[in-house]
């Protein structure tokens, strides 16, 4: 039988060993970039796209770059980086979510024995954006760009796992 303290240690160890895949995009960063650079012409939701299929799949950033380079009215956006375009494409593919929720959703599928029940409601407290899992009495939250884990069965402070972007890459790679 796994004790609560061992459970916390195992989760921290497993999560710390994950690698960040290349090309992961951020919904939150993409939302900001879209609002600052694209909204005026493309609207919200972006319904003024000449070919919405360009946003599908892994080629979306390259397709957006092609549109910028081939459309005179968009050439002022040529300074956007490939990372910026990946973030915009990610936002356009998932406009009604947040990076934190994508990370939490991924965690629930990767660690269902720890983060149960799935689809717990997200909330905010003391600067943390978090979810509480009543079945296992654990919390997972993000504060100041860091991902934290707290096992309510073990006295102590939340365990700082790593930068939240590290886990966002895992969520992105898994389709979240």
Automatic annotation (TrEMBL):
InterPro entries: Cyt_c-like_dom (IPR009056), Cyt_c-like_dom_sf (IPR036909). It comes from the Bacteria. PROSITE patterns: CYTC (PS51007). Residues 25-111 form the Cytochrome c domain. Keywords: Heme, Iron, Metal-binding, Signal. Residues 1-24 form the signal peptide. This is Cytochrome c domain-containing protein. It comes from Chitinimonas prasina.
